[in-house]
Write a structure and sequence with these properties.
single chain, about 500 residues, mainly alpha, 17 helices
Length: about 500
């Protein structure tokens, strides 16, 4: 029987989209290349681990696993545990809403850009102001706390820097070091600090699990407020805040729609599980060894070396959080500068390291000024003023409520709103509104009206900023919402058409 002749390979069927795109790639003349407006930051270079390091560092889990148990000492055991459980649940719902944006677009503006796409410019400007207050305020608070740990460590080495001049010098030096590290690229530094963070977490978890249930807990100080449970809920949410900071690195991630979304979803779950472990340890009495070692507690039976190791871990955790907040705030400023909302120096990018050094320098100056102000009003080793912390926490809640509402409108407009996301956004926005209302009531009935005035200013900031821009820079309003759009190299030649976007640049558009 003669051998069968081989079957000829079938060509690509004519009339298909692939055939037409291949034909056009040889026959059409492409116009000037379409480029992403955020390409100066360096697209597609960060791995998933590096993106996760940004979010984990922002939340400062090692420091929070000590701070939250200490805050629980001023509340009832059951009330403290329920407050942390509720905070973790609400933050998980907010993360689900944020992930609906991150799986669809990569934007260096983070929540600010997301709200633009779902709720319009005014609410986006409110979120931009809120995120500025949140990340710069968080950077100042964590830098202050980290500086205090550095001063404590210097004291153990025989260098006294507790005076006003010495403390100010330490905070300025730490700010300069963080600025230099971030300008040169935060990737290696963040990974190194993440390793230290993991080692600190391993030590803390080991102490919590091996702690004696009969160990005496440190005596709580006098309560700063009669609303201790509300303050604990705000502290727990603030400790988990920063999971969304991975979104600021979207244009720089290798697979942004995948890695950023996974990070946004998993960071509050991982950190929330650690905080629930800490709450369980307090409720069962197993946190005594950890808290006594950190506070230099009562029994005198705790090894001083253990306390020193904890303070070093907490110091690294605070400074890593400050560094990550620098990174997030600078990306927000850079995005606003690209949109012409902020001056052009804010969009200057380092030619080698691809970092927005203009925005970073502005963030460093602002954070250092706030940190020095905190240092000036400090009369002892006490925590920073409560008003600043409540203001930062309140603005965070405002931003989260707006982004959950924007999620509903965004998905409804594109026809992709699912029942799960609708329930999650409704519950998260309702819980955030109730929490914000409680905070406003507490501050309005209290003696300190600074927080009430600050939150009111943030709430109306969007209307004011849009009105000013409409009068002075009307073209900037048309540029709001910049995200990492596709470039010519991202698609097959001839497979898309070109058009002009709101910024007057060539961009890829869908072919009819």
């Amino acid at each position: 029987m003669p051998p069968r002749a081989p079957r000829p390979s079938s060509p690509v069927p004519t009339g298909t989209a692939l055939h037409e795109a291949i034909a056009r790639s040889f026959s059409v003349h492409e116009p000037p290349r379409a480029l992403s407006p955020l390409r100066a930051l360096g697209r597609r270079q960060l791995s998933g681990v590096e993106v996760m390091a940004q979010s984990i560092a922002t939340t400062a889990p090692a420091a929070s696993m000590i701070g939250l148990p200490l805050a629980m000492l001023g509340t009832s055991v059951l009330g403290g545990v329920l407050a942390i459980v509720a905070s973790v649940a609400v933050m998980a719902l907010i993360a689900l809403c944020v992930s609906q944006f991150t799986r669809r677009l990569a934007a260096a503006g983070g929540l600010y850009t997301f709200v633009t796409k779902g709720a319009g410019r005014r609410r986006a400007m409110t979120v931009g102001v809120a995120m500025t207050v949140k990340y710069c305020g968080s950077a100042a608070l964590t830098l202050y706390q980290g500086g205090q740990e550095v001063i404590r460590l210097l004291g153990a080495l025989g260098v006294d820097a507790r005076g006003p001049a010495g403390s100010a010098a330490v905070h300025c030096l730490v700010t300069v070091v963080i600025l230099l590290v971030v300008v040169r690229g935060v990737r290696r530094a963040m990974l190194a600090i993440l390793v230290v963070e993991l080692c600190s977490l391993a030590l803390i978890v080991g102490l919590l699990l091996s702690g004696d249930s009969g160990a005496r807990l440190p005596q709580p100080g006098p309560p700063a407020s009669s609303h201790a449970t509300l303050l604990l809920v705000l502290s727990a949410m603030f400790a988990l805040a920063g999971f969304e900071s991975a979104a600021f690195l979207g244009p720089e991630a290798k697979r942004p729609l995948v890695t950023v979304t996974r990070t946004v979803l998993w960071t509050p779950v991982i950190c929330g599980a650690l905080f629930l472990l800490a709450a369980w340890a307090v409720s069962s009495g197993r946190a005594g060894m950890l808290l006594n070692a950190y506070t230099g507690g009562a029994d005198g039976a705790v090894d001083p070396g253990l306390g020193t190791a904890l303070h070093i871990g907490v110091m690294c955790s605070w400074l890593a959080s400050a560094m990550a907040s620098f990174n997030a705030a600078s990306h927000l400023f850079y995005t606003m500068a690209v949109e012409r909302i902020l001056p052009s120096p804010f969009r200057r990018v380092h030619a080698t390291h691809r970092t927005p050094y203009g925005a970073l320098a502005a963030v460093a100056l602002l954070v250092c000024a706030v940190c020095l102000a905190l240092n000036a009003v400090r009369h002892s080793a006490a925590a920073p003023p409560v008003a600043l912390r409540l203001t930062v926490q309140g603005t965070l809640v405002i931003a989260y409520v707006l982004v959950t509402l924007a999620c509903l409108r965004f998905l409804a407009r594109i026809g992709e709103l699912t029942p799960l996301v609708k329930v999650a956004a409704t519950l998260a926005s309702g819980a955030g509104t109730a929490l914000l209302g409680s905070l406003l009531f507490v501050t309005a009935t209290g003696h300190d009206k600074v927080v009430l005035a600050a939150l009111g200013a943030v709430a109306v900031s969007g209307v004011v900023v849009v009105a000013v821009l409409r009068r002075l820079r009307p073209d900037a309003l048309e540029r709001v919402g910049v995200f990492d759009s596709a470039e010519s190299d991202d698609v097959l030649p001839g497979s898309a058409s070109y058009g002009r976007n709101a910024r007057g640049l060539d961009s890829l558009v869908r072919r009819p």
